[in-house]
Amino acid sequence: MSVRFGTDGVRGPANEALTAEVAVAIGRATVRVFPAQQVVIGRDTRESGQMLAAATAAGVTAEGAEAVLLEVVPTPAVAAASSARGVPGVMISASHNPFADNGIKLFGPGGRKLSDAEQSAVEAQIEELLSPGLHPGPSSVGGVHADHTALDEYAAHVVASTEGRRLEGLKMVVDCANGSNSVVGPEVLRALGAEVTVLSDHPDGRNINEGCGSTHPEPLAAAVVAHGADLGIAFDGDADRLVAVDHTGTVVDGDQIIALCALDLRSRGRLAHDTVVVTVMTNLGFRQAMAAEGITVVDTAVGDRYVLEAITAGGFSLGGEQSGHIIFGDLATTGDGLLSAVVLSDLLLRSGRPLAELAAGAMTRLPQVLVNVRVGTPMPDVAERLAAEIAAVSAELGDSGRVLLRPSGTEPVVRVMAEAATDDQAAQVAERLAAAVEALAAS
Description:
The protein is of the alpha/beta class. 40% of the residues lie in helices and 21% in strands.
């Protein structure tokens, strides 16, 4: 059996593609690749999370290491515990996917997502462990224990990020996606003094991300307007990302939040090397805005682990994705929705201006259309095979737009992205390239 990591770990239908046997193998492989006496394991609120966490723990202990169960915690809390303790970390979550899916994300010692070489080493060990036959471990086995201090330590770290500043006077609505931030998110924001109305904070194992959270911001937008709030924040299921909503109910996405943070950090002399790291999916309007401000933009492949690698390699302090994964290199080792919410709220209060005004001033978002084309077999070289079509469309758009084709790292689809001066032009370009992908897939 072959298990391969996608853009963000291993993911699939729980108890089908992602079985207890696979989780045991991942737990064992983690200890083999990163020799450690301890592995920290967290999970989100999916009903399959307990099974997969227990199975992962069984694999860890079978290799002689101690499995530390952090229970329900945000993904960045696992990364923080991994960093603080210098041990590998495992997060059981399928992020924004429906409850029936689950996933396993790994952090190497130090709380950083795996490099390509480390991923390949883990995959090789998993394949060996899932092959027929016995695979005995060491003569001694490890133990399992629960540890709830990691969540408290994480919350304290997020509170400390404001350097003593408070959020009094800020009225906000928070959508917890019935996920990992359902308790700690509102607690932290209230501890900082914000007035918080909470949505979707009653997880039942099956309602995670269901019509709520960062992929469904409509209820949040309506609640912000109804409550007369200054802003709204929506997390995803494992709370490693967010989207915001301004007081008018308009969504403020990751690109806009990163632009705001880049300008704020630069104004305070805290944007290392006057550089920000983003992925190829980041809106062209972001690039134009940063260029106008003399801020360098570094591009990476899609996936927050690539953003983090570039931040680490360059000694940069800020990066992220349009989807709302935002990494503050001086404060965290991974995308963190709650930390981002606190940083944005603090920025808003310090500016004395509404989020709608700040977002509009930070960048002008070009119309962007994304089409997912389902394919029967993987097409990793789709951009190369359609190079002529891409070149022709790019020439037509000139400097006022761009296109991007890339295979998904988590689904059997090719993502076609088009940006242009108008919505109609972007839609036409996207449809044209999507048709080319479909024709290629059918050939």
